[in-house]
Amino acid sequence: MYYIGYLNANSLHDRKFAQAICLLEQSFDILFIAEHWYQHHELRLSHPLVYCSTTRHINHGKSPPHSRSHGGIYLLVKSHHRPLIQSTISTTHSITVWLPVFRFAAVYYPPYSIQEESIKASLHPIGPIDLLLGDINTTFASAIKLTTNRSNSTISHPSRLFQSWVVESNMVHITDIYQHRLSHKILDQAFSSIKLQSKITLSLIPTASLPFSTDHKYLLHIHYANPLSDTSRDSIPQPESRPPPGPIRFHVQRLKNPETVPQYEKVWTM
Questions:
Q1: For a FRET experiment, which of 61, 105, 151, 243 has its CA 20 to 30 Å from that of 211?
Q2: Alpha-carbon gap, residue 115 to 164, rounded angstroms
């Protein structure tokens, strides 16, 4: 089995970078950190737990030479999992990873500076995958009837683009079963191949419970039950018994909120 995470950092200064490394070591096998903004980039790439990064966008003279870069994804991998990675492909907006019989990718698309055609072009080199996760800066309705004009008028172009990509790629949009409604309202999303849908579980971990400052409210926590994993990995706890990273607190009065109750029940069970 694998524990894979995706977290939007919204900049990654030294303290946050150290916190990201600790988060990897404590709770994940593989962790994607998005929007690192290429801060101290060459130094970060030399860290033993940083496997690779997306490629920096070339400005072609449109921005001042010393202006701050945006975007960027780091692939963080625990040391004993590095030999399992067969290859990776990095582009400006994505990192694709090959593991034995499992291929997945992480993406980051800025909210305003990328066009729909550019998103389509960036999805093409990723090719067939088993899992895609990341900040795509669009939301999904929980129940959309594309056959009605009324429904179509309320769907954003990026949302419609990804819905088409999902169908064409034999993928499905996956949600946290305990927070189904919430999963459609946030900008970080996850998609699974239909054939592996039963083996991939998504949990949304509130970032308020983590020692990590970000404007994104949730971390994507993926549990992949790899049927070909060796017995040495059986010692890793199952999601039901494994506590979420960091403490989680609930305000008693807020348990009256119907969306809070299932979150509390999930944590209590864990």
A1: 105
A2: 16
Does residue 234 carry a pLDDT above 60? no
With respect to residue 247, please indicate whether it lies within any of the assigned structural domains: no
Domain residue limits at 193: 2-241
Report if residue 20 sits inside a domain: yes
Q: What is the secondary structure of the chain as a DSSP string?
A: -EEEEEEE-SS--HHHHHHHHHHHHHH-SEEEEE--TTTTHHHHHTSTTEEEEPPPPP-TTSS-TTSPP---EEEEE-GGGGGG--EEEE-SSEEEEEETTEEEEEEE--SSS--HHHHHHHHGGG-S-SEEEEE-S----SS--TTSHHHHHTS-HHHHHHHHHHHHTTEEEE--TTSHHHHTTSSEEEEEEGGGGGGEEEEEEEGGGSS---S--EEEEEEE--TT--GGGGGSPPTTTSPPSS-----GGGGGSTTHHHHHHHHHH-
Q: What are phi and psi of 242, to 5 degrees?
A: -90, 120
Is residue 79 situated within a structural domain?
yes
pLDDT in the model for residue 143: 46
Write down the pLDDT at residue 63.
Answer: 47
Lowest mean per-residue pLDDT among 17-31, 37-51, 115-129, 134-148: 134-148
Best-predicted range by mean pLDDT (66-70, 90-94, 253-257): 90-94
Q: For residue 128, what is the domain's CATH number? A: 3.60.10.10
Is residue 137 within 8 A of residue 162, CB to CB? The reply is no
In a domain, 268, yes or no: no
Q: Is 88 within 8 Å of 52 (Cβ atoms)?
A: yes
Tell me the per-residue pLDDT of 103-134, one tens digit each, with 9 for 90 and over: 999 999 988 778 888 898 999 889 999 999 99
Q: Based on the structure, what is the number of domains in the chain?
A: 1
